[in-house]
Structure formats: C-alpha cells, structure tokens
Amino acid sequence: SQQGEEDPQALSIQEGENATMNCSYKTSINNLQWYRQNSGRGLVHLILIRSNEREKHSGRLRVTLDTSKKSSSLLITASRAADTASYFCATGYNNAGNMLTFGGGTRLMVKP
Amino acid sequence: ETGVTQSPTHLIKTRGQQVTLRCSSQSGHNTVSWYQQALGQGPQFIFQYYREEENGRGNFPPRFSGLQFPNYSSELNVNALELDDSALYLCASSPGLAGWVISNEQYFGPGTRLTVT
C-alpha cells in the first residue's frame, strides 16, 4: 500500500507557469525525497529534505516540509515542456528497514 | 543517466513460470534495493541487500527472493508468476550504510518491464 497521497493526481499547465505538487504522509519520518519519472522509466532523484528542515531549494525547485501537518510540497518555477513527467514523493522512516515508501505520484504535463 | 543497469529491458512470461531479473549497481555502491511499480502507481519496496545480506523487506510473499553478489550486483527472482506480477521492476543502488542509509538518495536503473500472460 502507498504511504500517502499526492495531490493533484494530474496537472496540466502552460510553459512558463509554476507547478505545485503536494504530498501527505501518515507517520513520523527521517527524511522526504522527491523523484521524477519520465514515461515509465527509471526514477531520477530531485531533492531530499530532512525532518528538521523546513525548506530547500535546488535550481527551479523549491521543497517545503511541514512535519506538524505531515505534508510536503514541490514547486517548479518557470516550467518548461521538458518538465513533463510524473513526480513522486518518497518518505524514509526511523524504523523501517531502510526502505523508501512512495506516494502515487502527480502526472505533470507542461504545454509549449 | 545513473550508472545502474538492468536486464532484460522487457520480458514476457506465462503464469506459473519463474523469472530472474538482474541489476548492476553504480560503482562504489554496496546497497541495492528492488521496487515493483504497477501501471499508474508509485513504486513499492520489495527488499534491500547490503553486502550480500537481506537488509529489509516489504510486504511481498516469499516467492519473491533475491541475491547480491560480491561485486554488489543483484538478482530478483520471482517464482510461480501471477498475472498481478506484471509491472515495472526497478533496481536502485545507494552508497551504503552511513548512519541511516534511508537518508541517502537512491540511484535508479531504467527498469525491467515484466508482462505475465
């Protein structure tokens, strides 16, 4: 079963707009990571935020983490057609046998 | 592109058969994890190997088994295939246990698409 839910499940925007994806989870975590997947292929790591961090930036990506609400958001600014992909959040737990638990993903389409 | 490779790329099997999927981890990585991703869903953790020993297992039946070799490459074996085993199987390597290995990003291979008919 999935750890949590991502919202929205699908998102369609125009090139140049910002895209925001949200992720919720159920139990306390050690860290939260965001991954990108193109067309059912391998996942690419985007960014990792630890449970004691609130915000992190990487290029056009901004991730926030609210442990009190058990939620995170990924913001992609000035989106490009090449950003079209599925985006997944994954959580790592304190006592979870060293596994990542993924959400169901947000399918982002950026129209040129 | 990560340095993680998987073979084969695609595979078609019949219900009841057995399958072996292979993964070569990125250079310097001694931890390998396997995930199953059904169509339209997120990956689900199957198990992880660290220095040839199983280091954690998800909610998968015993007919899912694995191996890790001294060069840290890995195999996933599935016996008595069922239709629901049709999925993309992803292998991911990470640098290894340094504190919490789950704190490290994982480097994914391109996956093996398994179809069970």
Describe this structure as you would to a colleague.
The complex is a heterodimer of chains A (about 110) and B (about 120). Chain A is an all-beta fold and about 110 residues long. Chain A has a single domain (about 5-110), classed as Immunoglobulins (Immunoglobulin-like, Sandwich). In chain A, about 0% of the residues lie in helices and about 55% in strands. Chain A is built from no helices and eleven strands. Chain A has strands at about 5, 10-15, 20-25, 30-35, 45-50, 55-60, 60-65, 70-75, 85-90, 100, 105-110. In chain A, the strands form two sheets. In chain A, strands 2, 4, 5, 9, 10 and 11 form a six-stranded mixed beta sheet that branches. In chain A, strands 1-3-8-7-6 form a five-stranded antiparallel beta sheet, with no helix packed on it. In chain B, about 0% of the residues lie in helices and about 50% in strands. Chain B has strands at about 5, 10-15, 20-25, 30-35, 45-50, 55, 65-70, 75-80, 85-95, 105-110, 110-115. The interface of A and B includes residues 40 and 90 of A.
- Distance between the amino and carboxyl termini of chain A: 35 Å
- For the residues shown, what is the average pLDDT of chain A? 90
Largest sheet of chain A: 6 strands, mixed
Q: What is the CATH superfamily classification of chain A? A: Immunoglobulins
Alpha carbon gap, first and last residue of chain B:
31 Å
Main beta sheet of chain B? 7 strands, mixed
DSSP helical segment count of chain B: 0
Structural class of chain A: mainly beta
SS class of chain B:
mainly beta
Summarize the structure.
Chain A is 0% helix and 54% strand. Chain A is mainly beta and 112 residues long.
Write the topology of this structure.
The complex is a heterodimer of chains A (112) and B (117).
Chain A: E1 6-7, E2 10-14, E3 19-24, E4 31-37, E5 43-50, E6 55-58, E7 61-66, E8 71-76, E9 85-92, E10 100-102, E11 106-111
Chain B: E1 5-7, E2 10-13, E3 19-24, E4 31-37, E5 44-50, E6 53-57, E7 64-68, E8 74-78, E9 87-94, E10 107-108, E11 112-116
Parallel strand pairs in B: 2-11
Antiparallel strand pairs in B: 1-3, 3-8, 4-5, 4-9, 5-6, 7-8, 9-10, 9-11
